[in-house]
# Entry
Amino acid sequence: MRSFLLVATPFLLSIASNVAGLAIRQANSSGTCTTNQRKAWQNLSDDEKAAYIDAELCLMGSPPQLFDWAKNRWDEVVYGHVVQSNVIHDVGAFLPWHRLYMRAHEYLLQTECNYTGAQPYWEESLDVANLAGSIVFDPDTGFGGNSNGSCITDGPFTQLELHITQSTNYANYCLTRDFNTDGFQGATPSNVSSCYNSTTYEAAYTCYKSSPHTAGHAGVGGTMLDAVASPSDPLFFLHHTNLDRLWWEWQLANLTARLTDMSGRNVPRPSYLAQNNFTYPGPEILDYDGDEGNVTTLHHNLWMVGLIPNATIGEVMDLRGELICAEYV
# Structure
């Protein structure tokens, strides 16, 4: 069973640079591009929900385009997160990297699976009092429900076969969920408001990462609780799009200053790496990231493993810019 490295090698880094430039950048670069109207899941019609689910199933059933070991396009999407989990968490690039990753996923749905909508989000604070009753877990119009740690048995992803783990890309396992209402409490409106009141990016990202972000992963549990392979659960993309929405609301509170407010560690703390059994980043990824020293800057490169072209943090800071071209409604 062949495994892959969890740090980016020079060979892997060359993949993205050799991929033809994709037309994801819109013509408008004035900060008013809002083609992708991102809605809360509860505000979608049943037809819109079905279209999104169908597009996800399309990715899962489509052949791979980047890696000969992948069994489908979904493997390649999940791999983009797994292969660099040791350098995209507990760092300043955490929110920008996931913003671009949400766009990559959205773009693939639109261009490869005929999806005409935008990436929806899960407004988790509305479900703190009744996690299991959330509309996102509806088996008919949502993602299926709790499975208490076993393979899920309802909804559209009951037969989803997963392959990527921290140690191998040839696993064969199922999607699981294991709800934890206590773990979901970080999504309360009061916790979200506390993060919103942060005055610097470093304080804001630390708060959002610790409270609403952790809440979504811990509350759903199962596959979502895996820090490395959590994108294997399609609900991951609604969760992280909601987190991006919260960051954007924080930016909007003082947009002129916060479009350039970037800081935080470039290399995760050794304790974080050890806790998650990650290897320490090598010089190839540190040089590639474009930061000077251990401080995240706007020049930091965000690697998308060839799913879409790379971008710098500076290019994704404005949600309404030519790269993301989105609005939360």
